[in-house]
Amino acid sequence: MVMDLNKCIGCQTCTVACKRLWTRREGMKHQWWNTVNSQPGTGTPHGWENMGGGFKNGVAQAGHRPTVDEYGKAWEFNYQDVFYGGKDHVPLTPVDGDADKGPNWDEDIGAGDYPNGYYFYLPRICNHCTKPACLAACPRKAIDKREEDGIVLIDEDKCRGYRFCQEACPYKKIYYNETLGISQKCIFCFPRIDEGVTTACSRQCPGRVRFVGYLDDPDGPIYKLVHEHKIALPLHPEYGTQPNVFYVPPMSPPTLDKNGVATDKPRIPMEYLVSLFGPEVEEVLDRLQKERERVAQGEKSEMLDLLISRKWLDMFGPFDKHPREVGGNPVQMVTPGVMTGKGGVA
Ligand code: SF4
Ligand code: SF4
Which residue has the higher pLDDT, 324 or 286? Predict the structure, then answer.
């Protein structure tokens, strides 16, 4: 997957599409396999970038095991009073008292001082890494990377809930289900992918942020963005897991001087972007800027046409079927309990 951060509007439609489809079973209230956070920020789980895991010089690192509190509990709200209580002007409020963290806690806070404040949205899912630290850490061999497409899956029948995968994943994209005693994570909508239907998060995204396809398909959008145009980079490549989710980095408005005049200094500090996407980010932003300037001169650009995604379905490579085309319930698509890879399309 490639996500173009210049188009994400932080609407959380992807988050809800994923929640609606996959994480409504027992013990999954706190699970948000897709999250969208404002950057700079603490992210989900809070402070995940400092929790360790991944590989250092090829050696696996055991990191911190995030708690439900660090992910942010699902709050209970006073719906009864607001909608049925017969009282006027009751605001919607969490009622469980300790609602002091959430999966998108620092929304739109960002950094920088007026008039040069800045933030951007960072959607995250499991990166379905080429070298998955979660898989390497599991003594039960309950985690597999599918040969045909590289999707990383946890077999819920084999998992015994030891949670070494949670410690090992440097992106902290594995959740523990206390009720079922198993670890769970994004399955890249594999029952849809198997039928030629793209993931729910990408299909529902109103910003046309998410491209889906194979990294080695020269005619597909992922190959073009990552290898041909070289404008998409993995998040925190230094964690050593070789992620397969790539990002087109955010372009910046200029900072304003004290007279309100635009300078040539970008508002998002380059050091910050380098800390997220590695040193190549500077070159990528330069390439994007030059291409914009070329188009402003009236020239054509395959790169920008691809990023603009005028033809929506072209964003999904071979996964361009409508859910209805493959039968079954177009929203649900799968039978409950399909996560192990043994179920089928309903
Ligand atoms: S992001 Fe984490 S959970 Fe997903 S494949 Fe990589 S190491 Fe495993
Ligand atoms: S649905 Fe698209 S635009 Fe909205 S938050 Fe998700 S990635 Fe961003």
Answer: 286
